Amino acid sequence: MDPVRKRTKDLSKSVDSAHLAPFPDEVLEKVLSLVKSHKDRSSVSLVCKDWYNADRWSRSKIFIGNCYSVSPEIVARRFPNIRSVTLKGKPRFSDFNLVPQNWGADIHSWLVVFAQVYPFLEELRLKRMVVSDESLEFLANSFPGFKVLSLLSCDGFSTDGLKAIATHCKNLTELDIQENGIDDLGGGWLSCFPETFVSLEVLNFASLNSDVTFDALERLVSRCKALRVLKVNKHISLEQIQKLLLRAPQLMEVGTGSFQQELVPRQFAELETAFGSCKNLHTLSGLWEASSVYLPVIYPACANLTYLNLSYATLQSDELSKLLPNCSNLRRLWVLDTVEDKGLEAVGSSCPLLEELRVFPADPFDQDMVHGVTESGFVAVSSGCRKLHYVLYFCRQMTNAAVATIVKNCPDFTHFRLCIMNPGQADYLTNDPMDEAFGAVVKTCTKLQRLAVSGLLTDKTFEYIGKYAKNLETLSVAFAGSSDRGMQSVMEGCPKLRKLEIRDCPFGNEALLSGLDKYESMRSLWMSACNLTMNGCRQLAKNMPRLNVEVIKDEESDDSEADKVYVYRSVVGPRRDAPPFVLTL
Amino acid sequence: MTTTDSSPSSPPLSITSSIDSSSHYQTNSSMETSSLLPTHLTLGLSVSGPNFSQRQQGSADWPPIKTLLRRALANNSPGSPSSSSSSSSCRQLRQTVDNTSGDNSLFVKVKMEGIKIGRKIDVLALHGYPHLITTLENMFSTPNILWEQYCHHKKYYNVLTYEDQDGDWMMVGDVPWEMFLTTVKRLKITRTPSPSG
């Protein structure tokens, strides 16, 4: 049914070879098609020409970490049989409003090529791309077998685009819309799924703001028997989620709506039963404004939970302490800092299998907050959860000693992202810079892949990072360092560095140019509000023609300053869709 | 807390300011400049390292949390009486935050002559000219920013000016505060040479 293109046999080859050919091409392709990871696939393609070709013809999934590093035409030429595309666009700091609107990363030109070359495209996963309603409609009408649409941190579309998807994608299995900047014109899109449509497995519309027609949702959930992920938005009430759970007890991941409805005891009991009936439930999120009064309805499901996302519930420490003993199987926990250190102590004592913890600030802008979490909460978690390897921690105070203890308890960190919210803040007990904290992290955690640093940091921190962080791939730096030497240390070390993002640091042209040998082996470099000048950037561009050196000009700054610089490797040269405020040097 | 020399020569970066004292200032919004000597503001500097007090004003890009979560936290409406008992204090705090940050902000660039890196300030988060002055004094660690009200004090020599919608540079303080907010595009602190130098 699906015509996979076959390459024409190269007959001359079999005539010439006096020895046995190692594998017939089809066998090699079959074997290689079992190699799934795109990094492994990339390695496979570098072995020899035969393997390059085998990979080329058998590859069905492609991952492009920077949409401007390559063109859709080149992709189409090399890989004729793609079914699944993952594309990432804007630099990560665009999440924090550092990239102006209309910067680029529009998906449309890609879709036009794909429609011609990959009519059997099934999956499109986009992150930080611009997607218009027109593009969504084009997508819905161009790929009859389309199954998976995942849009993460994208913008440019409205719910009208979703209407097109719901209406035309007859084989859709996944619709995952997360954290996008979209125009929510109403919930009518959900009603566009025809009554004959039954294939949905994943539906996530948690970040959309308007009401959907509950009836339509309930019917949709009822008839999609393979539905395993359902994440609704906060307009769905507790009573409604109960009805949905009854319709779909097979659900594995649930994102509830608002948890604030007033319930009578009967409704409370019904909710408890509903959660209890979901035997496969391992992920729970949503819980908007959940409070201690109604949180217990989820207790029957807690024993099986491996991922609990409480980042929209302003829980206090005692509420969390009551909840967590029910959740001894947790691997991933996301909370707000309203739970405070005491809540984190409960994490440490109740969740020994925890691998990932994220603590977000509930009131990020109030500097006078005496609440939130401190270093003791983090230490408490590390002491009870020895398997912890991923942390994102927002706090207002930290000490070098605490971090040293934390990594001693948990030496297997792969992702260590610490955000001391007051920029340039020292160890509050000793008044020393936080250099030794991150020194301890990189010396102890040899598997570290991702690091975000904060607090008062001198060049010493970066010397440690350059020297010890052998597996580091992603580094985020803000308000840190003393001189060019800092960034230079990183560029001279960190052999596996792929992504470096820096803001508000005293690194200048010398630092930028010290990375000349490194940038082609990296995906990208971002530097904003540092000490770069246009001349420095021009020098980099001149010396490295296969890099795109883009400067985003700030209208109010000096002509010689390079306020925001984005450097990335590309095989297609300067991009042709750059807006007037982006200068490619 | 220790006192430190806040002159530009000691810290590695040319931008220093006192975080702790200015954060105290943020909440005492009705305090007038005249009652707070510049020297008071430099006390409380606990380290002579780069400090970035600008960030205290709830910038749109710091701390690094995504827009969706940021909006959800800023716009969360107070809960119904039955559920708000345990988190009412948090909600109250959130309401105050809502008034000073979140969706209502106007960031203008501030440059001080001689300092390469400009800063940004949310003028809508300020309560008036005195608040603006002391915030800038902290931000650039310079006492005695001169504005309209004190221009007769000849020994002060950092002059604060702003560019208005017409592109003209005016002395800050020449119009009422509310009008200033509608017309300010960016700010500049110029350093006229001291009489002795």
From TrEMBL, chain A:
<keyword id="KW-0833">Ubl conjugation pathway</keyword>
<dbReference type="InterPro" id="IPR001810">
    <property type="entry name" value="F-box_dom"/>
</dbReference>
<dbReference type="InterPro" id="IPR032675">
    <property type="entry name" value="LRR_dom_sf"/>
</dbReference>
<dbReference type="InterPro" id="IPR041101">
    <property type="entry name" value="Transp_inhibit"/>
</dbReference>
<dbReference type="GO" id="GO:0010011">
    <property type="term" value="F:auxin binding"/>
</dbReference>
<dbReference type="Pfam" id="PF18511">
    <property type="entry name" value="F-box_5"/>
</dbReference>
<dbReference type="GO" id="GO:0005634">
    <property type="term" value="C:nucleus"/>
</dbReference>
<protein>
    <recommendedName>
        <fullName>F-box domain-containing protein</fullName>
    </recommendedName>
</protein>
<keyword id="KW-0927">Auxin signaling pathway</keyword>
<comment type="pathway">
    <text>Protein modification; protein ubiquitination.</text>
</comment>
<feature type="domain" description="F-box">
    <location>
        <begin position="23"/>
        <end position="64"/>
    </location>
</feature>
<dbReference type="GO" id="GO:0019005">
    <property type="term" value="C:SCF ubiquitin ligase complex"/>
</dbReference>
<dbReference type="Pfam" id="PF13516">
    <property type="entry name" value="LRR_6"/>
</dbReference>
<dbReference type="GO" id="GO:0010152">
    <property type="term" value="P:pollen maturation"/>
</dbReference>
<keyword id="KW-0217">Developmental protein</keyword>
<dbReference type="InterPro" id="IPR041567">
    <property type="entry name" value="COI1_F-box"/>
</dbReference>
<dbReference type="InterPro" id="IPR006553">
    <property type="entry name" value="Leu-rich_rpt_Cys-con_subtyp"/>
</dbReference>
<dbReference type="GO" id="GO:0009734">
    <property type="term" value="P:auxin-activated signaling pathway"/>
</dbReference>
<dbReference type="GO" id="GO:0031146">
    <property type="term" value="P:SCF-dependent proteasomal ubiquitin-dependent protein catabolic process"/>
</dbReference>
<dbReference type="InterPro" id="IPR001611">
    <property type="entry name" value="Leu-rich_rpt"/>
</dbReference>
<keyword id="KW-0539">Nucleus</keyword>
<dbReference type="Pfam" id="PF18791">
    <property type="entry name" value="Transp_inhibit"/>
</dbReference>
Automatic annotation (TrEMBL), chain B:
<comment type="subunit">
    <text>Homodimers and heterodimers.</text>
</comment>
<feature type="region of interest" description="Disordered">
    <location>
        <begin position="1"/>
        <end position="33"/>
    </location>
</feature>
<keyword id="KW-0804">Transcription</keyword>
<keyword id="KW-0678">Repressor</keyword>
<comment type="similarity">
    <text>Belongs to the Aux/IAA family.</text>
</comment>
<feature type="compositionally biased region" description="Polar residues">
    <location>
        <begin position="24"/>
        <end position="33"/>
    </location>
</feature>
<feature type="domain" description="PB1">
    <location>
        <begin position="105"/>
        <end position="194"/>
    </location>
</feature>
<feature type="region of interest" description="Disordered">
    <location>
        <begin position="74"/>
        <end position="96"/>
    </location>
</feature>
<dbReference type="Pfam" id="PF02309">
    <property type="entry name" value="AUX_IAA"/>
</dbReference>
<dbReference type="InterPro" id="IPR003311">
    <property type="entry name" value="AUX_IAA"/>
</dbReference>
<feature type="compositionally biased region" description="Low complexity">
    <location>
        <begin position="1"/>
        <end position="23"/>
    </location>
</feature>
<keyword id="KW-0805">Transcription regulation</keyword>
<dbReference type="InterPro" id="IPR033389">
    <property type="entry name" value="AUX/IAA_dom"/>
</dbReference>
<dbReference type="GO" id="GO:0005634">
    <property type="term" value="C:nucleus"/>
</dbReference>
<dbReference type="GO" id="GO:0009734">
    <property type="term" value="P:auxin-activated signaling pathway"/>
</dbReference>
<feature type="compositionally biased region" description="Low complexity">
    <location>
        <begin position="77"/>
        <end position="89"/>
    </location>
</feature>
<dbReference type="InterPro" id="IPR053793">
    <property type="entry name" value="PB1-like"/>
</dbReference>
<comment type="function">
    <text>Aux/IAA proteins are short-lived transcriptional factors that function as repressors of early auxin response genes at low auxin concentrations.</text>
</comment>
<protein>
    <recommendedName>
        <fullName>Auxin-responsive protein</fullName>
    </recommendedName>
</protein>
<keyword id="KW-0539">Nucleus</keyword>
<dbReference type="GO" id="GO:0006355">
    <property type="term" value="P:regulation of DNA-templated transcription"/>
</dbReference>
<keyword id="KW-0927">Auxin signaling pathway</keyword>
